[in-house]
Design brief:
Length: 272
């Protein structure tokens, strides 16, 4: 009797299936509407259904230099911010993941706090700090702003992996005469490599489409999300804005999916 009840409990009901389907439609329907209007032949209004489909707006978008300039800046900012996050986040993870010490919990909380704070608060704090030291917003202030949350992403990934590495492995390596760098290269690095890669991909995706912090730290610089935001209010050609939106979704979706599949085996192993 208990086993039958347990099987019934584990079997999803029709209501839960319908609720899940409704949730998926709610989440993804707006995305597919944007994709649809990237191919419309109408350039002024959002007529539904579109009067026709065309690839014309993709060629128009590819020919616009302002889009390419914004894209290059976004990729450069995301790349540098991700590199900084990989270095600093890894060092911080190694420092905080292992042995306890006085104040460790407080330091850990302060370290992950930036990702929990509202983006507008982080951006305002960064802008105030930039102006206080007499600087003007530029490329490097954007990188610094993005690194605040990218660093936390990498840190969380590496810490989670380090905590699953048995301490006995490190002790065995030391007993065999390995020094610190050798232990890191031959014992720790193979175990955290996928965590670093997944954290870096997630950090890049988040940095690439970040807009709130960027609005405070960019000054006259225009990343792709900033370009997209400005075009919403004074669009030259509405379908081109949708084409850029599809581009942003594609660029951010690929690393997120790769990061998901890289960490998926670890979830199964943990569950086992």
């Amino acid at each position: 009797m208990r086993s039958e009840r347990r099987r019934d409990w584990n079997r999803p009901s029709l209501g839960s299936k319908l609720a899940a389907a409704a949730g998926l439609v709610f989440l993804h329907a707006p995305v597919w509407v944007i994709v649809l209007y990237a191919f419309t032949t109408e350039d002024r209004t959002y007529q539904f259904p579109p009067p026709g489909l065309t690839l014309h707006w993709f060629s128009v978008a590819l020919a616009r230099e302002d889009i390419w300039a914004a894209l290059r800046l976004s990729v450069e900012v995301a790349g540098v911010a991700t590199l900084a996050a990989l270095i600093l986040g890894s060092f911080a993870a190694f420092a905080l993941a292992r042995r306890p010490f006085p104040g460790k919990e407080t330091i850990t909380l302060l370290f992950v706090l930036p990702i929990a704070l509202p983006g507008i608060l982080t951006g305002l704090a960064l802008l105030t700090g930039i102006r206080t030291v007499g600087l003007e917003p530029n490329f490097w202030t954007i990188v610094a702003g993005h690194a605040t949350f990218c660093l936390v992403i990498v840190y969380n990934n590496v810490v989670a992996r380090l905590r699953r590495i048995p301490q006995s492995w490190i002790e065995a390596s030391q007993d065999l005469g390995a020094r610190g760098p050798q232990t890191f290269v031959y014992v720790l690095l193979p175990q955290i490599a996928t965590a670093l890669l997944a954290g870096g991909m997630l950090a890049f995706a988040l940095s690439f489409d970040e807009i709130i912090v960027t609005m405070f730290t960019a000054g006259h610089e225009k990343t792709l999300p900033i370009w997209f935001y400005s075009e919403l209010f004074r669009p030259r050609e509405r379908p081109v804005t949708n084409v850029v939106a599809v581009l942003v979704m594609t660029v951010t979706l690929v690393p997120i999916l790769l990061a998901y599949y890289l960490t998926k085996p670890d979830e199964h192993a943990t569950g086992a």
